């Protein structure tokens, strides 16, 4: 089984500079072959990534003399993996035509020189041309290291290490655990059919005033000046903090749900369509429901817990969990569900979670 572990790094100033240089080298190589590929298309020729890599290698030492001191695999991996994947997704209509990478849109590069070429010992990792770099954690998975990607988020550098563990971990016994329905939303991050509520931290709303203040400070600075870079670093650090708080709440909730269920019923949400409602778009983005459901799916797959998804248009909130009748008059502002047929009254989110549990048990159709 292939498993990835993302670990924060603790580089010194020289190593951090080398990381930034390798990220720039990968970006330059990607943009170079993309421009070459577009020129070929305009001339009616199709160049493969192998041919583009050879053309780049023939001119890189003349046009980019500074690249001689760097690991050449950073450019090679950017062409063979990132560029090739972008073209493949464009050909299959999964994405639009690739765009040129900007320095301000994230920094990353693939640091390995092939399968098994990177060494990890305890709390440190050895990277080509850079040497030993300290890590805040040790690698949890044992096996052959297949891929190492160095990236920067906010003010920190991370290493995403892909490991081939050869054998799967033993699946725990879950047959004695109950079937659980999970309803996600804005007021509560998740509500289970067992009556457990997981609160939404609403971290963007909490730090919105501070973000606005930093944005105003950044707009008043002269672009490229020292104070501009300082304020930009503060803003990136604040965004990173918001992301960490949000992901921490989601990881804790999804782990607790998966560990207590033998089967989970969830909704198939069209989050992209929901974001078109401008009254709810900011709150939905703050909740990050897509990320929550993705975590729930991959953790359930590792534990052997089956995920049952209800249809996108299944009215889980407008269906009575006691008699099964529907109520189309329920509005979004109504937080308590009251059945006009049997008189059953219950919290709206808990009622939806119980209906999703019924779907997961196979007792109803969606």
Descriptive notes:
- The protein starts with a strand and ends in a 6-residue tail after the last helix.
- It contains ten helices and 14 strands.
- By secondary structure, it is an alpha+beta fold.
- The radius of gyration is 25 Å and the shape is globular.
- The strands form three sheets. The protein has a seven-stranded antiparallel beta sheet.
Instruction: Give the overall average pLDDT.
Output: 90
Major beta-sheet overview: 7 strands, antiparallel
Instruction: Describe the global form.
Output: globular
Spatial strand sequence of the major β-sheet: 2-6-7-1-5-4-3
Concise structural overview:
With 366 residues, the protein is an alpha+beta fold. The chain has helices at residues 13-42, 49-63, 73-91, 203-206, 208-220, 226-258, 271-274, 281-287, 289-303, 348-360; strands spanning 2-10, 107-110, 119-121, 124-127, 131-135, 144-153, 156-164, 179-184, 188-192, 197-199, 263-267, 306-310, 336-338, 345-347. A hairpin with a 3-residue loop joins strand 8 (179-184) and strand 9 (188-192).
Give the helices and strands, then pairings:
Layout: E1 2-10, H1 13-42, H2 49-63, H3 73-91, E2 107-110, E3 119-121, E4 124-127, E5 131-135, E6 144-153, E7 156-164, E8 179-184, E9 188-192, E10 197-199, H4 203-206, H5 208-220, H6 226-258, E11 263-267, H7 271-274, H8 281-287, H9 289-303, E12 306-310, E13 336-338, E14 345-347, H10 348-360
Parallel strand pairs: 8-11, 11-12
Antiparallel strand pairs: 1-5, 1-7, 2-6, 3-4, 4-5, 6-7, 8-9, 9-10, 13-14
Index terms:
366 residues, alpha+beta, seven-stranded antiparallel sheet, five-stranded mixed sheet, 10 helices, 20% strand
């Amino acid at each position: 089984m292939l498993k990835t572990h993302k670990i924060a790094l603790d580089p010194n100033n020289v190593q951090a500079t080398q990381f930034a240089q390798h990220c720039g080298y990968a970006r330059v190589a990607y943009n170079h072959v993309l421009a070459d590929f577009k020129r070929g298309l305009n001339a009616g020729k199709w160049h493969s990534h192998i041919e583009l890599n050879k053309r780049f290698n023939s001119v890189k030492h003349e046009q980019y003399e500074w690249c001689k001191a760097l690991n050449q695999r950073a450019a090679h991996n950017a062409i063979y993996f990132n560029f090739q994947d972008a073209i493949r997704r464009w050909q299959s209509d999964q994405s639009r035509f690739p765009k040129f990478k900007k320095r301000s849109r994230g920094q990353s590069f693939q640091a390995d020189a092939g399968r098994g070429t990177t060494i990890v010992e305890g709390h440190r990792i050895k990277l080509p041309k850079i040497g030993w770099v300290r890590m805040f954690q040790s690698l949890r998975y044992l096996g052959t290291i297949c891929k190492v990607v160095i990236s920067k988020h906010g003010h920190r550098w991370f290493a995403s290490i892909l490991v081939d563990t050869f054998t799967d971990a033993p699946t725990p016994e879950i047959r004695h655990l109950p079937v659980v329905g999970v309803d996600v939303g804005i007021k509560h991050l998740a509500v289970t059919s067992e009556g457990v509520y997981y609160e939404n931290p609403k971290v963007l709303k909490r730090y919105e005033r501070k973000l606005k203040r930093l944005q105003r400070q950044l707009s008043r600075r002269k672009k490229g000046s020292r104070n501009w870079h300082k304020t930009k670093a503060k803003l990136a650090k604040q965004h990173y903090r918001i992301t960490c708080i949000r992901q921490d709440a989601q990881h804790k909730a999804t782990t607790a749900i998966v560990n207590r269920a033998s089967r989970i019923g969830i909704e198939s949400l069209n989050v992209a369509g929901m974001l078109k409602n401008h009254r709810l778009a900011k709150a939905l983005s703050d909740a990050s429901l897509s990320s929550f459901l993705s975590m729930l799916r991959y953790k359930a797959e590792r534990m052997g817990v089956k995920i049952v998804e209800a249809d996108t248009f299944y009215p889980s909130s407008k269906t009575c969990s006691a008699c099964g009748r529907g109520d189309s008059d329920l509005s979004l502002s109504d937080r308590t569900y009251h059945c006009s047929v049997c008189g059953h009254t219950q919290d709206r989110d808990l009622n939806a979670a119980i209906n999703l549990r019924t779907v997961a048990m196979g007792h109803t159709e969606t």
